[in-house]
């Protein structure tokens, strides 16, 4: 059971002077999951991620990576090879070329030839920088540098990836590219722990999320469970006929909780408590009632709304 | 081929490969080669400018004629001596006729002497070209070239090398790239050795280019291969030591950002300049002088023949001298690496653990007392060897080394205070969470609270400093007892055994006051707490002495004032034992008060937030 957990922390605590940055966090992340950590600035996300990456020593508590305890007083060579850590700031050796930089880190992580050569090509293809391999790092754009940093993080094929605000400061195109790479890494089975402010990205990538506030982990659950528990399902219905007829039908349906007429006159937003089968039944009943339906769109509240709904209001 | 070589190096040590890749570029390499050749040429030409030509003076060292005239002069001098003695004898006999005859002869001899002198040292007299000993000139000048190149090697490698290393580490730390190296599965030794070999690679290149001329000069000067290679071995060992020290230095957070490379390499430069002109003193400071490779420039290593360690003559042959050098370097390099390993992995950790500090202090004592125990006849100049002032007494070297040992120990312990005293965060963590963080090995001891004070690095350093002080004091106490029993002619016996023991007690008390004060200041909330700690300790040490000196109060005039200062020993001669006791009692009281305050602060730090809230703090 413990072996299946990629990360387990018990009472993890980090104190800076009298300020407790991470407060008794008990975290469990299964292998193969993509875990998103959200929370305002200063909630302790970066400190938590740094402790998991062995970059920071916990004040108290224990960390287990794939069942192995992480000891601050040892070198943890084996565990370091399992980990890939991308911090929020990503210093690079500007005077090296892309290839030299990746080759250097591949060697630091003890990749041997010919595997090293192959892996370098694979990674360059993955981050779409193969054509820039001989360029100096100083000549790359910010998005490219970010992707290069990600390449450095995954060069040794870690099984646990820790990404701290990986898309902050990137333009929408660079963000999309970055997201696509993460999806590919998820598909090859890496466990990914990612902290981000961009909740729409996390929504698309994560299987579980955790919410941090004032150093506490206040929520930690699979995304599906969180939606089930907290997200309202909504249906957008448009009709060519009279709005009143549609409203009449909806009032009579037991699973319709409330409704709201939107700006466009013939479209109604419905709060619906049933499952997808009930949703199909509702559509059928409307059609049978001869209402000329032009749009029937099933949707649910996004992660941002859920996050705000939870009422955690630590100021950033 | 070069690419393959770099690739192989990269497989062995990726860090070295990275440093080489960044540095071995065409322009820097070309410039290095040019500078190296230029330096060699300048040294060679500088020596060559003294090459004896057709205007070489007759009195020159290499003129063969000179020795002929010198011989004549000696003969004349002997004759003059003989005649002078005869005159003195004849004057008593009043044989005036013979006296005037001899006086005439003397005048002639003086005239001859003057003539030869004028000829020999006259400005127009040159040595005939075929009478110049060119072979000897070359032999000696190759030796000068060898020594000049050796000096250039030592200064370039150590000063430029330490500068480059400190600068490189400071840049990596500033950029934040060092953290990635820490997180990689490479050992700290691999990364740091890569740095040591790679960062000064251009300096190595410059030296490597000059090695053929260095070897040629040495062989032409008829130096043996063993002498030449012992120079290289000592040079390599010194590089290991100074580069390790430079790396450790660069990990310290200083208040003067950006100046570290100049400070570090400047300190090395001053050390080398000072030790270049310093001979071994056959005393406790020898280990420090032996850390400078500059001693090996001088003529031959044989001048260390008097060097002893616990009376064992280690300097008698080249192998022994080499062993002393290497063991000395290895020991201190080992200790530097103990600190490097810790601080590389955890930049906020203490440079040394408490347990390690006890071992280091013991090591230092063994080394200092080892070099103190040397035979003393070397202190007597050959002329005075048989005079009664030149006592071949065993206590002589103790007399010589005693102040040195005290001084070195005080400097060492003051340094140690800052090396092993934990900063505020560590003490807070320890005080608040120590009950949660008991590891398995410490579990056995968890009921014995003082184990933490002795061994655990995050606990305040007061107990550990006391143990270190005791370690430094044990040899003194043994010496006091032995000197009394054997009735050595030592100042210890002159001031009396009771005062000597009191002097040791003062030493312990003062050092403990400094340690407690520094630890208390390191618990301050201000981020500049280290600066405050250093400033307050320095003020306590120097302010009373400066005040007393400025006011012109001498220990003999007001011994009581001096007894309460940081240098109470100066007033021992003029104070009675009860007065000294009272002064000691007052200082002990200050120490106890300081420790009570420290304990209170630690207890406060260990309180939970709830407890602090309930107590309205």
Word description of this protein:
The mean pLDDT of chain A is 85. Chain A is globular and about 70 Å long. Chain A is 35% helix and 29% strand. Chain A starts with a strand and ends in a 7-residue tail after the last helix. Chain A has helices at residues 45-52, 77-82, 98-108, 115-126, 142-154, 172-187, 199-205, 223-230, 243-252, 276-288, 303-309, and strands at residues 5-16, 19-30, 34-38, 60-65, 68-69, 83-86, 160-164, 191-195, 208-213, 216-222, 233-239, 256-261, 267-272, 293-300. Chain A has 316 residues and is an alpha/beta fold. Chain B folds into 3 domains: 2-47 and 136-349, no CATH class; 64-131; 394-544, no CATH class. Chain B has helices at 2-12, 14-23, 26-48, 64-93, 96-121, 134-175, 178-183, 188-198, 201-220, 225-251, 260-276, 286-289, 318-345, 354-372, 395-420, 424-433, 440-443, 450-455, 462-486, 491-495, 497-521, 529-550, 559-563, 577-605, 609-614. In chain B, 31% of the residues are buried. Classes of the chains: A alpha/beta (316), B mainly alpha (617). The A-B interface holds A 11, 13, 15-18, 53-55, 57, 59-61, 72, 75, 77-78, 80-81, 83, 85, 87, 89, 91-93, 95-96, 100, 103-105, 107-110, 112-113, 152 and B 10-11, 14-15, 17-18, 21-22, 175-177, 179-188, 345-346, 348, 424-425, 428-429, 432-433, 436-437, 525, 609.
Task: Tell me the layout of helices and strands.
The complex is a heterodimer of chains A (316) and B (617).
Chain A: E1 5-16, E2 19-30, E3 34-38, H1 45-52, E4 60-65, E5 68-69, H2 77-82, E6 83-86, H3 98-108, H4 115-126, H5 142-154, E7 160-164, H6 172-187, E8 191-195, H7 199-205, E9 208-213, E10 216-222, H8 223-230, E11 233-239, H9 243-252, E12 256-261, E13 267-272, H10 276-288, E14 293-300, H11 303-309
Parallel strand pairs in A: 3-8, 3-9, 6-7, 7-8
Antiparallel strand pairs in A: 1-2, 1-4, 4-5, 9-10, 11-13, 11-14, 12-13
Chain B: H1 2-12, H2 14-23, H3 26-48, H4 64-93, H5 96-121, H6 134-175, H7 178-183, H8 188-198, H9 201-220, H10 225-251, H11 260-276, H12 286-289, H13 318-345, H14 354-372, H15 395-420, H16 424-433, H17 440-443, H18 450-455, H19 462-486, H20 491-495, H21 497-521, H22 529-550, H23 559-563, H24 577-605, H25 609-614
